[in-house]
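Posting here for the record, re: adenosine monophosphate.
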Amino acid sequence: MHLLNADLHCHSNVSDGTLSPEALAERAHAGGVDLWSLTDHDEIAGQRRARDAALALGMDYLTGTEISVSFAGQTVHIVGLGFNADDERLAAGLEHTRAGRRARALQMAEGLAKVGIAGAFEGALQYVGNPELISRTHFARFLVETGVCPDTHSVFRRFLTEGHPGYVPTRWARLGDAVRWITEAGGIAVIAHPGRYRFTATEEYALFTEFIAHGGRGVEVMTGSHSAAEHIRYADTAVEFDLLASRGSDFHAPGESRTELGTLPDLPGRLTPVWEALASRIQTKAQ
Ligand code: AMP
Ligand code: MN
Ligand code: MN
Ligand code: MN
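Prediction output follows.
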């Protein structure tokens, strides 16, 4: 077992979480986290605040982000860890990835209006902390708050996924581009929550082999969205593809996220943790 309590995946109100980077740092610290990373979707504007808060609390910190990618007709998330947050190509790539979100949100609201849900764009905006990052999660919170659905999960099931009225197909970043932005900024690219995708075995194999061919080096084995069986399955995948293993709760909001910061099972001893390969990129108070 690797006993370091690392939590390398979560979201602040700079993307679709509800807590500030500082409040999230406090929650991670209270959860016993030793090494933390804030991984907002397609955005690194919260990195300095997260790092400063982490170090003030005595936690070690790795820079982070979670990039939206389109692959084989689905959205795949690639987590980047330990990159230089001042890298200009990474910043430009993330900005490009974020660019269509506002127009997409307006189209989502149109789709919802057609089934009788008025004012969803303005409604979702009330929950947005970063105007460049309107997410489906913000629509979900609005539809829960207005009583249309009992919880965010049912909003996604009934309205925000393929085949439903608030769904708008989106072309995100290309896999190779996302991996290169991260890698060329000195970081390591990690396939986020592989158990969440609905790929065939052939498509999943293509995802892993292409990811590695582009320079990707890690996979999330322990994540809040994996079952116990998936923890084992993706530990095997990490070994099979010789990938570094990551661990992250994917915490978004109190009362909404099932997995608290710092509470996932430890990585099995047969895996190499991604943080071992990032030792020189870890920021500590002493620096
Ligand atoms: P977006 O990047 O705007 O497409 O939104 C994606 C986000 O929606 C994910 O990062 C999750 O936070 C959230 N999400 C996706 N599917 C679900 C679901 N079934 N239940 C709750 N939240 C979800
Ligand atoms: Mn999210
Ligand atoms: Mn994700
Ligand atoms: Mn996430």
